[in-house]
Write a structure and sequence with these properties.
By secondary structure, the protein is an alpha+beta fold. It has three domains: 41 residues, no CATH class; 101 residues, 2-Layer Sandwich (Uridine Diphospho-n-acetylenolpyruvylglucosamine Reductase, domain 3); 84 residues, CO dehydrogenase flavoprotein, C-terminal domain (Enolase-like, domain 1), CATH 3.30.390. The protein contains nine helices and twelve strands. It has a five-stranded antiparallel beta sheet. The chain has a four-stranded antiparallel beta sheet with strand order 9-10-11-12, with helices on both faces. It has a three-stranded parallel beta sheet with strand order 1-3-2, covered by helices on one side. Strand 4 and strand 5 form a beta hairpin. The chain is globular, with a radius of gyration of 18 Å. The protein binds flavin-adenine dinucleotide. The site of flavin-adenine dinucleotide (FAD) has 30 residues, from strand 2 and helix 5.
Amino acid sequence: MNFKEIVQPSSLEEACKVLANHHKAVIIGGGVFLRLQKREAELGIDLSRLSLSYIKEDEKVFHIGSMTTLRDVETSGNLPRCLVESVRQIGGVGLRNMVTVGGSVCGRYPFSDINTALLSLGARLIFSNKGEISLEQFLDENYILNDILTSIVVPKAEYSTCRYFKHTYTDFSLVNLSVASGDNIRIAVGARPGRAILVSDINTGHTAEELLAHIEFKDDIRGSGAYRRHIAEVMLSEVLEEGLLWK
Ligand SMILES: Cc1cc2nc3c(=O)[nH]c(=O)nc-3n(C[C@H](O)[C@H](O)[C@H](O)COP(=O)(O)OP(=O)(O)OC[C@H]3O[C@@H](n4cnc5c(N)ncnc54)[C@H](O)[C@@H]3O)c2cc1C
């Protein structure tokens, strides 16, 4: 992507003002995925001077700043296991040092591993204008994003884990799955190929096949829906056999 001009606001208020005056401005997180796009934009708003790179925690939740890199998530040491597992296999360390959590969430990529993990954890997003919305709602909607994601609120989980299936280490997931339990149990499935969604009606007596029965898996050039369904069922069976999701 080529920008005619890039601004680097030094406060969130300034960044919001620029965005309000330039509705077509492009927000730049790590800039890694934007770089791959072949288009021109009049204005880019670089968020790197807004101090949005942090991981904080209180008794019940973590607060992750939108400019926190995937490498920071990977090395934080205390974030939920499924989140750490979902990022540590994305590209190489160099990529994870540049890519941001905010860019990953806002890109709403159908192949995303991190969004599947965040969805299973019941993450909530804090935008500068719209305020707080659930990740579930954000992934479900198709509105054009004209707002700055400032942070992600991630509830603590008692147990969580994720699974993904890739042909090679640096490939995109053919299908992925993440589970978390705490106040309630959540199972998210992503790269179906399509944005991550939650399994509704979780019945602890059900098998993996039964739990995934209403999830839609589709064909694309990389694999069929039936193949994806089968892999997801195997991955979820593995998790259930561990016996830690529900006891
Ligand atoms: C080679 C390669 C391999 C990858 N492999 C995987 C993989 O296996 N699994 C996986 O899950 N992901 C993968 N990714 C995607 C990666 O993890 C990131 O999701 C992606 O690069 C976007 O992050 P970024 O910081 O570069 O965002 P950017 O490129 O800066 O932005 C992405 C989008 O989000 C918007 N945006 C960014 N930050 C904000 C904000 N704070 N508020 C509002 N809008 C914002 C931008 O305007 C843009 O539309 C891969 C990417 C690359 C380049």
